[in-house]
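Q: Start with the shorter request: fold the first protein.
A: Done. Sequence, then structure:
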Amino acid sequence: MELTLNHFLVLSAILFSIGLVGALTRRNIIIMLICLEIMLNAGNLNLIAFWYYSPNPELMHGPLFTMFTIAIAATEAALGLALVLAIFRHYKTVDLEQIQGLKE
């Protein structure tokens, strides 16, 4: 069985759906950041799949855009974890429901 573009698109949609459901239903900030990373990886999978199955894969646009999104995702993860640490130091929890206000 040969893999086609549809296989990659279905896998990407499943990954994005898992990330979206996790980001919307979880209360833990760290789990929400992990779910956002899963959603970004689904987008990267789309970029690579569309590049690979394009008429001109020698142009390397897909891997170039993917490298940019990986760099942005790494920056987002570092900043997000820094914010989580700051919130944890102040509130002593990472549960979003227990954090009442930012000016306390």
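Q: Next, the second protein, separately.
A: Sequence, then structure:
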Amino acid sequence: MQLVIGEPLGKGSSGQLYRGKYMSQDVAIKMIALVDGHNVDMDSDSLQACPASERLQTFKQEFSIMR
């Protein structure tokens, strides 16, 4: 297995952050909440309260920052 997801490091408005390893390298893994309203292991109501277009814009901004 090339990707190993470790313990959670925190969560923000658009997803959760985990420690992990990818091909023996230490990495941060961000699990982004899905745009269709189904969250990835999140218990925050703040994201679901936002319109889908706003969540998509947040995802695009985070993706731009991470790349």
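Q: Describe the second briefly.
A: The CA atoms of residues 2 and 13 lie 28 Å apart. The radius of gyration is 13 Å.
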